[in-house]
Amino acid sequence: MSDLPGARAAQPVRVLLADDEEMIRHGVRLILRHAEDIDVVAEATNGAEAVELAARTPVDVALVDIRMPVLDGLAAIEQLVRLDPKPQVVMLTTFGDEENVTRALQAGASGFLLKDEGPQELISAVRAAAAGDAVLSPGVTGHVVRRMLQGGGRVGPANGAATPDQRLAALTDREREVLAMLGQGLSNLDIGSRLEIGLGTVKTHVGRILDKTGTQSRVQAALLAHQAGLAG
């Protein structure tokens, strides 16, 4: 397979693979090797090893299986997002594993991929995660958001007893605009286009939104936008 158009010319995206099935890791590795802007720099067979490797060898994106020995993917995600610098964590799952997807997003994952995704979708997802975008289609995002909100799901460990409106109180008007667009499932590129601002500015706004609201990922921020009634 040839590389996708629009490859990054800067430093390659550093990827960690965490899956206890060797065949899965082998297949993902072979696919990602076709992208000149992506390097698989570490592989782990369980969640504990993934956290140890990511702490020792900083990575941009961690692709983490949900079911692994020693430390499962959900527990690993919670530890990975606390690292500094922290990787963007994308959960690898099988179709229909909705409960675990929801729990992973609550833990701070940037999104999820189905294990049977095609090569181009996998490469695009890694690039999107590295760019700070959620690896979820708008349709899937809406489905997961509805499930989490219906179940009273938390949107991050820092929400405590504060209401959604209280957590948004420190945001500027522009940051609230960006948060509303996150809630609609828009990418950084789409947000920049709508607001007529550069990608760097969008990323700055997103980072400040996460810091001010105590959310771990743009998916958690999107959930908060829905809870606060910003996403429509």
Q: How far apart are the first and last residues' alpha carbons, in Å?
A: 40 Å
Helix content: 40-55%
Number of helical regions? 11
Secondary-structure element series: EHEHEHEHEHHHHHHH
What fraction of the residues are assigned to beta strands by DSSP?
5-15%
Lateral strand order in the biggest sheet: 2-1-3-4-5
Mean pLDDT: 82
Helical/strand content category: alpha/beta
Please give the largest β-sheet: 5 strands, parallel
Low-confidence stretches: 1-9
InterPro entries: CheY-like_superfamily, NreC/VraR/RcsB-like_REC, Sig_transdc_resp-reg_C-effctor, Sig_transdc_resp-reg_receiver, Tscrpt_reg_LuxR_C, WalR-like
Pfam family, one: GerE
Protein name: Response regulator transcription factor
Keywords: DNA-binding, Phosphoprotein, Transcription, Transcription regulation
Could you characterize the architecture of this molecule?
The chain has 232 residues and is α/β, with parallel strands linked by helices. 49% of the residues lie in helices and 12% in strands. It is built from 11 helices and 5 strands; from the N terminus they run E-H-E-H-E-H-E-H-E-H-H-H-H-H-H-H. A 5-stranded parallel beta sheet has the order 2-1-3-4-5, with helices on both faces. Helix 2 (47-56) runs parallel beside helix 3 (73-80). Mean pLDDT is 82; it is low at 1-9. It comes from Streptomyces chrestomyceticus. InterPro entries: CheY-like_superfamily (IPR011006), NreC/VraR/RcsB-like_REC (IPR058245), Sig_transdc_resp-reg_C-effctor (IPR016032), Sig_transdc_resp-reg_receiver (IPR001789), Tscrpt_reg_LuxR_C (IPR000792), WalR-like (IPR039420).
